Amino acid sequence: MQKLQVYSEDEKRKAAYALNLCTVSISQIVDYNDVYVLEQEYNAILNNLNLEAMPKDEALLKILVETLNTITFFRIQELKKQKVESDYQRRMKNAIWSAVPNLSVIVAGNPIAMVLSVATQVGTAYMNYRREKANAGIEKENSEFELQITAMEQFHALQRELFTTAWRLADSYGFKDEWRLTENQIKQYDQVLMDADEYRKYARLEAIAPNFEAYPPFWYFYAHTALYISENETNAVAKAEYRNRAKNHFEKYYQLNRFSLLREDQLAASALLEYSDLLLLENAKENTEKVYQLVMEAQKKAGNANDVLQLCAISYLKIGKTEDAARLLKYLVNEEYNSAMNAKILSRIYVSQYLATESPAAYTEYGILARRIAPEFLFPMPKGTVSDQSLEEAFIKRQKVTLIKAYRTTLQDYARKTRDDYEDALQDLEKSCYKEETVALLVSKLVAGEYSRNCVVQLNQMVAGLDTLPVFRNLEKREALIKLIEGTLRNTRPAVRNLQKKTVNTFDEKDYKNLAERFSYQQLTEKFFDILKARVTDKIADSQELGTLNLLENDLLQFCDAQELPMPQCLNLTQEKQQIPEGKESRYFDDVFLEDAPDSETQKQLKEKMEKIIGAAKGHIIKDAANAAIYLRTEKLFDIYFENSKMTGATKYLVKQKAVAVIDDKTNRDCDLILTIDGVVIVNQNRISDEKISYDAIKFDSEAGTDRLTTSYRDICDNAAIDLKELYALMQELDKLA
Q: In a 10 Å sphere around its CB, with 0-12 CB exposed, 13-18 middle and 19+ buried, how is residue 239 labelled?
């Protein structure tokens, strides 16, 4: 007679846990009916089993293989993953910067100053996605996140197969039947986890807790919910009570999770980080060493989960372990995860280390970082003896300048986009409208009020789009700003009414031009956008904390995503050379004979007159020769400028043929201006713009406290090394000649 194998209590519990792990995983894929959850389960559990620790049982092996085969068949990689991830990264950055008034605090590692529990409030990507889903914060678009019917049928079949596996494991190991989770218990558990009311969720978890003695993840979610409530509770007694409960649930989780069935375990890492936050809240000084051990263990459990490593880095900083934090931040920057934020913090650590000990290693690491990341995003490395405070002030000032440029660029892009939408909606306003064949249609639409209605609809949509940008939505004089457009519209009414009285026989070209001018988007919105840019500039300039600036940056990036606008080039971390846009013609040989082509007599005379005027004004315009210079067409430096092999974009010799002078921006921004016989061409980071801006379209703006040359839809120049008022006067002179 074969001797039955005797299993210890731990081995029995481990077998029950392995069974429950598979059962809950499949059940959650079915209950959530979500491809992203399927991906999470595959990566977090089913693709991450610790085979050494798993019970060696044929029944368990069979169900695992069938589960993996089914998931692999229906796995949909990268589906909406990028958007979900970028939204989550922004939430994490918002949470971190909300707790960090300046970089000196975060690098100092003062636990008292950084009590915010990012791990609890934001959590890992795994936790964040499910919480947002529970809060209806994630919409299903065209059912792209829903599993296919055939997939659902196969997962339901797997659930049935699990019953056979459970029977065999229970028979082999002889574990208590109450340790095995039933389908109904798991379904109830899944419904509880999707509850958006944290207080009710906790009460419901409390009610079903006795059923989960062999499923450790339950106790993490139980602890997480208690800690989340505690951190958001305003009543001191309730806060302390929920905090104490969270501590007890975390201890229970560790007691049950000692089997380590998963090689990398994001839930375990989350639990370790949240528990460390809890200990810091209780007594930061006494618990520092224990917290350090917890965070190191969390880092091991994280594997290559960048979001967990990000939380580990912040946790290291909380307890002053800057060396450990720097190592993780360097990894995250290289992996391009939250690069802007992590580069700022990492550069601050290197500078802090260099200031404290003149460490050559820190100086070298900073230099390596500076090769990849644009200087606007790095804390400045000191030259000579400077105070820490002056470095902080210089860094914040640099952040303000970059952010002001980014906002102005985006608002200009938005103005251009909404102008195009407006003109498309009013497509009858074309030059042919006054011709005989279309004039009847035009007059009929005027009489019916269709023009004014279409105009108002488009302007309403433009303002509604801006309302998604917090800095506009929260402007103190927002209503007054909107009334600028309303006032301009009201001023058009008498003229429009007169035009409505016109008949087909009396409506002529002059009337069309009058109509086009009255309904011109620029006429209606120019002052609105000019003042808006000035107000936003003031708002950013008045901000004193780095955290506020980073929140404003996140708001801007979300606005760009929502409005399908390009990210401002000045927020490009690496400032890589731009490629020629797709669809643009590549021209390599157009310029071979251009330098030999003679100017027309008129162009030659015009160049000579313009050069004389520019030469006379040159000394008044340049205030700082180290950061700006003017090269006239007859000077050697003018030719050297156009011999730059890095220059891309429009064929440079075509531009050179009409150029009279170059204003060379020698700052990091490197935004040059080429003054030609018929306008200005911008050269941004060695890329020549295809657009030429006429001199009469350029305006001088000093309302925002910083002088700049601008048009309705873009900034031209704001280089402090140039007297822009003098340059504007020069351009007016050139316009008269042109």
A: middle
Q: Which helix (H) or strand (E) holds 327?
A: helix 322-334
Confidence of residue 634 (pLDDT cuts 50, 70, 90): very high
Q: How many residues does the chain have?
A: 738
pLDDT band of residue 469 (cuts 50, 70, 90) is very high
* φ/ψ (deg, to 5) at 680: -110, 135
Alpha-helix residue ranges (DSSP H) falling in 214-287: 216-232, 236-256, 266-283
Look at residue 379 and give its three-state secondary structure: coil
Instruction: Tell the residue number behind the tokens 């390009």, with chain if given.
Output: 566
For Cα atoms 600, 601, 602, give the angle at the middle one, nearest 5 degrees.
Answer: 90
Residue pair 481/532 in contact by the 8 Å Cβ criterion: yes
Which of 372-381, 422-431, 601-610 is least confident? 422-431
The DSSP bridge partners found for residue 699 are 710
- Residue 384 phi/psi, 5-degree rounding, is 85, -165
What single DSSP character describes residue 596?
A: G
Q: Greater confidence, 446 or 209?
A: 209
DSSP 676: E
Q: Distance (Å, rounded) from C-alpha 738 to C-alpha 732?
A: 10
Integer Cα distance of 218 and 206 in angstroms: 11
Q: Does the pLDDT of residue 302 top 70, yes or no?
A: yes
- State the pLDDT at residue 489: 80
Q: CA–CA separation, 17 vs 19, rounded Å?
A: 5
The residue assigned the tokens 């890095």 is: 646
Read off the tokens for 542: 């008045």
487 has pLDDT over 60? yes
User: What are the C-alpha distances in Å from 325 to residues 272, 292, 322, 349, 529?
Assistant: 17, 11, 5, 9, 43
CA atoms within 13 A on the CB side of 577: 10
Contact 677/658 with Cβ under 8 angstroms?
A: yes
- How confident is the model over 653-672, as a mean pLDDT? 87
pLDDT surpassing 60 at residue 82: no
**Helix 216-232 with 198-208: angle, nearest 10 deg:** 150
- With 0.85 as the threshold, say if the pTM is over it: no
Most confidently modeled range among 259-268, 440-449, 592-601: 259-268
Residue 224 has pLDDT above 60, yes or no: yes
Residue 410 CB-density burial (10 A; 0-12 exposed, 13-18 middle, 19+ buried): buried
> Rounded to an integer, what distance in angstroms lies between the CA atom of residue 461 and that of residue 464?
5
108 within 8 A of 565, measured Cβ to Cβ: no
User: In whole angstroms, what is the distance from residue 28 CA to residue 190 CA?
Assistant: 7
Decide which of 263 and 283 is more confident: 283
What is the 8-class DSSP label of residue 147?
A: P
Alpha helices (H) in 257-265, listed in sequence order? none
Q: Look at strands 648-649 and 699-701 and give their pairing.
A: unpaired
CA atoms of 431 and 513, how far apart (whole Å): 9
Report residue 426: phi and psi, to 5°: -105, 50
Burial grade of 734 (CB within 10 A; 0-12, 13-18, 19 or more): buried
d(C-alpha 283, C-alpha 296), whole Å = 19
* Contact predicate 269/124, CB 8 Å: yes
Q: How far is CA 336 from the centre of its chain?
A: 13
φ/ψ of 192, rounded to 5, equals -65, -45
